[in-house]
């Protein structure tokens, strides 16, 4: 199979309408209007092609890299679609300067993303709820963490950055295509989870109940186990970077939990906190095979 299909020609005009349209997908209003997403970079592209190939509409490749460092990825792309478009470097840069030579326009409806009222409740285990997280890098990193530690889903409340942002997708490093990403109002997310048996744990640096206590409670024999614990299903809520969780959000949680710190730092970055919480939960649940 040749690198490029006979159905496509070299794109050498940075001002061509299709190039401009792909570039405008960096804007949320354009993504929302057309229900399309821009996926950039080799790592995200590889996971897209492996886990959500049906969502691919068009792929754009810097022709100077197609036969070199991107050759294997371009070959994988050609197995998915003929519409792998070679671009001159200048034309590719007109779409994105963050793609490292490859990007794709993707149908959002065919990605594992949905509103909370469109999906069934997750299976037992762990989910992560991002409440009004503003930084795309933090959101992408926490999607990646949730994926790495076996979460069933990631929920994004109103006020959290758009998960289809190219910056979020880059930071997630392909995890966007591995697990459900569900959006909705905080109460509409939390209430069904609690009814289904999930314990909802909020995070607060001021909480008197600590992760260490939670871990200790999770070491009990099954006959002595009581809530709160990490053995049974857990939903971790991570609040806004600057303000944390709101009073209303905290009131809907079953328990507020703090991460004990033994050095001089006053606080943790929200993504660092998420790494500690999801890793701790995954370790306990793996031992108990939730």
From TrEMBL:
The keyword DNA repair does not apply. Signal peptide: none annotated. GO terms for biological process: methylation; RNA processing. SUPFAM superfamilies: alpha/beta knot, L30e-like. The keyword Lipid metabolism does not apply. It comes from the Bacteria. Residues 126-277 form the tRNA/rRNA methyltransferase SpoU type domain. Keywords: Methyltransferase, Transferase. It holds the Pfam family SpoU_methylase. This is tRNA/rRNA methyltransferase SpoU type domain-containing protein. It comes from Boudabousia tangfeifanii. CDD domains: SpoU-like_rRNA-MTase (cd18095). GO terms for molecular function: RNA binding; RNA methyltransferase activity.
């Amino acid at each position: 199979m040749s690198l490029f299909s006979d159905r496509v020609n070299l794109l050498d005009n940075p001002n061509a309408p299709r190039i401009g349209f792909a570039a405008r997908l960096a804007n949320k209003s354009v993504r929302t209007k057309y229900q399309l997403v821009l996926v950039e970079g080799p790592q995200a592209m590889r996971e897209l092609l492996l886990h959500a190939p049906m969502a691919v509409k068009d792929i754009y490749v810097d022709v100077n890299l197609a036969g070199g460092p991107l050759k294997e990825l371009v070959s994988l792309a050609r197995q998915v679609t003929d519409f792998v478009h070679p671009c001159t470097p200048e034309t590719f840069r007109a779409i994105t300067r963050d793609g490292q030579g490859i990007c794709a326009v993707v149908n959002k409806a065919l990605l594992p993303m949905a509103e909370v009222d469109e999906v069934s409740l997750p299976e037992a285990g762990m989910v992560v709820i991002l409440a009004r997280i503003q930084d795309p890098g933090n959101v992408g990193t926490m999607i990646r963490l949730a994926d790495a530690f076996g979460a069933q889903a990631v929920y994004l409340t109103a006020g959290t950055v758009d998960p289809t942002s190219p910056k979020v997708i880059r930071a997630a490093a392909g995890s966007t295509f591995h697990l459900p990403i569900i959006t909705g109002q905080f109460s509409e997310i939390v209430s069904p989870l609690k009814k289904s048996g999930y314990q909802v744990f909020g995070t607060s640096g001021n909480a008197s109940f600590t992760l260490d206590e939670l871990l200790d409670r999770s070491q009990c024999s099954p006959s002595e186990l009581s809530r709160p614990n990490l053995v049974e299903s857990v939903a971790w809520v991570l609040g806004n970077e600057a303000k944390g969780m709101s009073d209303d959000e905290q009131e809907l949680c079953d328990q507020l939990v703090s991460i004990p710190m033994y050095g001089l730092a006053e606080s943790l970055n929200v993504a660092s906190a998420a790494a500690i919480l999801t890793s701790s939960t995954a370790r306990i649940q793996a031992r108990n095979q939730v």
